[in-house]
Amino acid sequence: MTNKLQLTLLIVILIALGVGITIYKVQVLGFSFNPDSEVKIWTVESRIDFKTDGGPIKISLNLPDNYYGLTVTESMQQASNYEYSVVKDDDGVSRAVWSSKNPKKGPHHIYYRATIYRHRSAQKKKAAKPVLALPSQPFKDSYLKAADNLIKATQNPKKSVVENSVSLINALNAPEKSDAVTLLLDMPRETGDKLNLARDLLLKSKIPCRLARGLVLNKKNNKTKLAKYIEIFDGKKWQLINPKTADVENQDTFLLWQRHNESLVEIEGGSNAKVRFSSIESRILANNAAIKGGHHKQSWLVNFSIYSLPLSSQNTFKLLLLIPFGALIVVILRNLVGIQTSGTFMPILIALSFLQTTLLVGLALFIIVVCVGLMLRSLLSHLNLLLVPRISAILVFVIIIYLAISVIGFKMGSELGLNVTFFPMIIISWSIERMCVLWEEEGGKDVLIQGSGSLFTASVIYLFMKNSYIGNMTYAFPELLLVLLAIILMIGTYSGYRLSELRRFEPMGQEQEKK
Length: 515
Known about the structure:
Blueprint: H1 3-29, E1 38-52, E2 57-62, E3 71-78, E4 83-88, E5 94-100, E6 106-117, H2 141-154, H3 161-172, H4 179-185, H5 194-204, E7 209-216, E8 221-224, E9 227-233, E10 238-241, E11 248-249, E12 254-259, E13 265-268, E14 270-285, H6 286-296, H7 300-303, H8 311-320, H9 323-337, H10 346-357, H11 359-380, H12 387-411, H13 425-441, H14 444-466, H15 468-476, H16 480-492, H17 506-514
Antiparallel strand pairs: 1-6, 1-14, 2-5, 2-13, 3-6, 4-5, 7-9, 7-12, 8-14, 9-10, 10-11
């Protein structure tokens, strides 16, 4: 394998990894490139009221963390003197369990709170086709004939599954219009109320359906119970129908808490357990919601990333992750444009200083320090000092200049001079030494070209680093650094003319025009 092929393969792998991970974080975890993008979230609180008998007690609550399209960003519970745990049964249903060995006899209450949001991509997924599970012989004798007549009257092969379901539910809600409905509603049943009757009739019509209980989150919920609904599978996804109104509900604002017949709350060693629900709507940054949701779902892209570090370390890396963008700009301006700079990565460090001082103040302070430093450095030229002592002397000069600018500026009523301390002293010292040597060898013109090129490059890097979209991109999607590395490697193989060198061919073009 040739070196060129190896480099091409490496570039392709880096781009594929960086772009692939980024797409996954946007589509699955819910990250956003817009730092100001917000998502709607709901805080749902359930209060369990019950009485204890004075002995050991165990109480469990069904949790809404196992349903399609729901992202739980945070959850917490409050119960004094109770041990708390979360268990999951064989069907994947999670339950919060509280237990106590010596509770006080009398009324108690427990709170469970969950912060949730629905990621937009969750609703685009196609659900698997369910298996029909009709209860064994729910209708017999005359009731079977009434069920067949009702199904025949309400089902139309030319209509959709949802339309046929709504037609049947509307018929059950108007028993005065149909003798079959009146008979079926009076039928002795072992499987529950009218809602279960609607489910059995839909299943008999070969319409996949299931019972559900939950909350409509865009409504004001304050100490309310879970509402009962029917879910209909239309061939692609589940549709939610309100059995009281036969309306199709918007699932984007519906919190599904229960499916099938699992119990909402179970209690051992107590009695009169009742659950009431409240909810409130708010908005938070999309990336914050994605990070919290990723932690809750144990996503390795979140748990083993910058988001798992302490906040102080995260703030440090926010700044460090900007440096590769600065390096890319230096590579582009030097290798493709042809701008000369004093030092390879000195503009990056100067740009980092500009982040603390602002651009105009930083430029002014940098020019003052370098100009004064060059004058003091010229005094050392006649002393024939060795390199290390000379650089050390320049460093002392730079610190004295910093101190003088700070004190003089403060005495004049301005604190702008205090910002000079943000400039890296060692880099400034080396820059002064390099410029002075260049002045002696090539002249002041080259010093001016490299100095202005360095300040221009630093200013461009500063503008990129200051951009909130760039800052959000590096912090939320650090895997894009792999793409940056691939671009730098591609530029590293370029050996053609720089933009600044094209002026060499200008006389040739003028001669051709004359001919």
